[in-house]
Amino acid sequence: MKSSGRGSDNNSPDDGADSPDAGAAVRRGYTPAKGRATPKRSEKQRGSRGPIMPPPMTRAEARARRKAIKAEKKKTESKMTKAERKKLSAETRMRANERRQRMMSGEEEFLLPATVAKCDVLRVTT
What number of other Cβ atoms are within 10 A of residue 63's Cβ? Predict the structure, then answer.
């Protein structure tokens, strides 16, 4: 009795599945090899880090490096004053409180999806 499916031994040589010239006649579910190994995470990260600097020889050199790194970080950070940061956080806090109040009052557009689903289920059953 012939069985179709995995592990069946009815692979005949006239299928064309084993020949590389078959092209479109490749059996269903077959994925050709990509030709190279999958790179390991460490190999992938190694290329993006750049050259490794030798350790500092003196304390002065170490201090100078730390200072240069700190200056570079400071350049990339945004230039907001303390007052601007406070104003931004106060606005964010105010918006969050408003959303929370509207959610607690039961406005449907501000309810969490799980709560809306629970309410819909209760409406349907009652």
Answer: 11
DSSP label of 37: P
Instruction: Please give the Cα distance from 36 to 76 (Å, whole number).
Output: 39
Query: 38-51 burial by CB neighbour count: b if 16+ within 10 A, else e?
Result: eeeeeeeeeeeeee
The residues, any chain, with a CB within 8 Å of residue 27's CB and separated by 6 or more, are 15, 17
Predicted confidence band of residue 21 (pLDDT cuts 50, 70, 90): low
Please name the residue ranges forming H helices in 1-126: 41-49, 59-76, 82-105, 113-125
Residue with tokens 């349907």: 124
The residue with tokens 């400071």 is: 74
| pTM > 0.90 | no
Tokens of 109: 């557009």
